[in-house]
Design a protein that fits this description.
Helix content is 45%, strand content 17%. It is built from eleven helices and ten strands. The strands form two sheets. The protein has a six-stranded mixed sheet, sandwiched between helices. A four-stranded mixed sheet has the order 4-6-8-9. Helix 1 packs parallel to helix 2, helix 3 crosses helix 5 and helix 5 packs across helix 6. It is globular, with a radius of gyration of 18 Å.
Length: 260
């Protein structure tokens, strides 16, 4: 497979899928999402692969969510909001192998959601987690909210979304958003070690375990699907557009004057 926005490599039975848009802080556009989905399916059903790693190129960011330069009331791809987010999130959950998020820098917005959905998250001491949706005229009305509450608890999830603060790698571990925080120099080695260890386990047992975990929250796919339609309607409002306009004009958004 030839990819434009991602890198795909198998290292000793571990498939590494790397978002390769460091100049955009690894923010994703429609093409990026489509390619990650294809790569997940390729790795997920390759019998020589035992585990999958989702990473971001460069030192600054794992992923910072949707590319705002491709967003003007809609994104540049397919799907309800112009990004196939429902399909991408479902692919991470449905692929019959664990997916490890490898976070070396910013995991913000949609990037934070990817970390939430991945089976495991290993980060460096330079990692920064958080949500920005309500500051930008956006929100993730699905796994990014409902499932996040399952991962970190209701109170913490609401704090993350209502206040839009930033959290360190150690704080992410403490709240349950990440499994382990290591020095930047040890990040790749640790991720590969965990992934190879998983690869030594029974693939069928691992697949059953993953499906069993997912069954408890399978209904949240419906929440996400309905939520994306609500988000589409929201993106068509002046209130949401104010977030993008304020970003471009480098000013503080004035959302309340557009609220109905």
């Amino acid at each position: 497979m030839q990819f434009e926005d991602i890198l795909y490599e198998v290292r000793n039975g571990v498939a590494w899928i790397t978002i390769n848009r460091p100049d955009k802080m690894n923010a994703f556009r429609g093409t990026t999402c489509d390619e990650i989905i294809k790569a997940l399916n390729k790795a997920g059903y390759d019998r020589s692969v035992g585990c999958i790693v989702l990473a971001g190129a460069g030192d600054k960011a794992f992923c910072t969510g949707g590319d705002q330069s491709a967003h003007d009331g809609n994104y540049d791809g397919r799907g309800t909001i112009g990004l196939p987010m429902e399909e991408l999130h479902t692919a991470i959950r449905d692929v019959p192998k664990p997916v490890i998020a490898r976070v070396q820098g910013y995991a913000i917005g949609g990037g934070n959601v990817l970390c939430t959905i991945c089976d495991l998250t290993i980060c460096s001491e330079k990692a920064v987690f958080g949500q920005v949706g309500p500051k930008m005229g956006s929100v993730d009305p699905g796994y990014g909210t409902a499932f996040l509450a399952r991962v970190v608890g209701e109170k913490k999830a609401r704090e993350i979304w209502y206040l839009n603060r930033r959290y360190s790698g150690q704080e992410a571990v403490a709240m349950g958003l990440a499994n382990l925080c290591v020095s930047p120099e040890k990040l790749d080695e640790t991720v590969q070690q965990w992934a190879e260890e998983i690869g030594e386990r029974s693939p069928t047992a691992i697949a059953i375990a993953k499906r069993s975990f997912n069954m408890d929250t399978a209904h949240q796919a419906g929440i996400a699907g309905m939520g994306m339609y609500a988000l589409k309607l929201y993106y068509d409002t002046d209130e949401s557009r104010e977030g993008v306009a304020a970003l471009k004009e480098k000013r503080k958004p004035q959302f309340r004057k557009y609220a109905k």
